[in-house]
Amino acid sequence: MVDGDLTAREAERVVWDAIVVGTGMGGGMLGYSLARSGRRVLFVEKGRSTLPGVPGIIRASMPELAEPLAGRSAEAYYDALARAGRSIDEVEDISGRFSRRFVPFLGSGTGGSSGLYGMVCERFFVRDFTPRQNFRDPGDSTVPDAWPISYDQLRPWYAAAEKQLGVRGQPDPLRPEANDVGLPAAPPFSADNQPLVEYLRGRGLHPYHLPMACDYTDGCSTCQGYLCHQSCKNDAARNCLLPAITEHGAHLLAECRAVRLEADGRQVRQVICESASGMLALKGKVVVLAAGALATPLLLLNSRSGDWPRGLANGSDLVGRNLMRHLIDLIEIWPQPDCKITAQNKEIGLNDFYFWEGEKYGTVQSFGSMLPIEVLSTGPGWRAKALRLMNPAVRWGYERFFNGGLVLASITEDLPYLGNCVLPSDRPILNGRQRLRLQYRLHASEIERRKVFMRQLKEVLQPFRKVTLRDGENNASVGHVCGTCRFGTDPKTSVLDPHNRAHEVDNLYVVDTSFFPSSTGLNPSLTVAANALRVAAHMNQVHFTS
């Protein structure tokens, strides 16, 4: 259906100013900006609408907890995921000797992954925009000397995105440029986090309250991993897509998957989509891809033609390459011996090891509480079934040894490599679910820096009881995936130009995390939002003069 007064077939007869494929942070923010400027904008979203008033949506809890019996049937399980704003696509990891299939923990539906995110909206460091200098030995990485834009160029757009998303928090004491940001204050640290903050400060470190896109209404649980049931979480659906539709005349075509772009040598002519109404051929003056760093390159690779034998906009052969995903490891600590932490508590940021002794590592954040075992034991796969069969014993051990602590997440920056990539599947659609292949291997730089980072973090946390959950090797951890359509100044070494337009296609833009030439060591959401506003302003000047 189309949110608004158009049917899908009527949408097919309109020549839109901009067709935006994907409604996450990049697509939502750019589409909102264009619609506010008076442009005719159509959002195309493969997932379901989770906007207010839509029945059957799962909020306030992960679907594994809200509907645990759904996991006994694959059809019911994937339906529950879709109603919770979660992806049902299948990724085949072909990195090792044996392939492995999984459903990525990503958003799919209005707001994309921002509907599930932990609301951390943090600016990158100035030095993040000149990345290669931050690594002593980047090896055969393609990490560039510099991004094609600087922090100063993005600064006003950072401020605009922070305002649009209602970001609140403290300045990072290790960043002089953060002193003039002037964010509204966040609430005081919770009782669960305060003891750790005091301990870290006592060690001479510099914890601060993370900048969060959160309104902290009464009863706010800073929900992470599921759709907000109150009006606390400021995401792309609530703060961008909804006002674009209700206030500025944009339209949404939900449950509609873009399957290919039809283009000649310089222009996208049609966006071919699959929906409940059948196949659609949508026309727009400009086409913007914001389907995520896995789906966007896949769409381009699947748009092969006589003009584009290697895939659309892929003259460089870099579409899908240079995939990055961050190495995220969890450490659970018990700040007090008898603590029983159950709240999300995503509050603390710590960047003392971001740049340390001439090398770049990453950030540390409080992550909240450990996930309930139901999240692991619900689903159609054999692992979940095995956990259900052992449930009494497994539950006792899980609650005895893994529950009650405060979970910290270390985010180590990974570098881009040509061999780490997204590839089409030989069977792209299975039972209505999109499939793709992923190849990602750790290199010497990541292995060594992660080892040093974890060693330093464990030394800092030495007084506490702790459990380390090393998840950095797990290729199913794609929550911060990026880099697969990088931007740059040279068409031979990048897919997009500095304004995020495809070097070889005049009316094609990409504004999700695909454009990142380096992953940095921080959450990507705010930079995606700020850049989308920058690109929208450029498009208004170049493509729409009246």
UniProtKB/TrEMBL annotation:
Residues 99-327 form the Glucose-methanol-choline oxidoreductase N-terminal domain. InterPro entries: FAD/NAD-bd_sf, GMC_OxRdtase_N, GMC_OxRtase_C, P2Ox-like. GO terms for molecular function: flavin adenine dinucleotide binding; oxidoreductase activity, acting on CH-OH group of donors. The keyword Flavoprotein applies. Residues 474-532 form the Glucose-methanol-choline oxidoreductase C-terminal domain. Keywords: FAD, Flavoprotein, Oxidoreductase. Coiled coil: none annotated. Its cofactor is FAD. Belongs to the GMC oxidoreductase family. This is Glucose-methanol-choline oxidoreductase. It comes from Mycobacterium kyorinense.
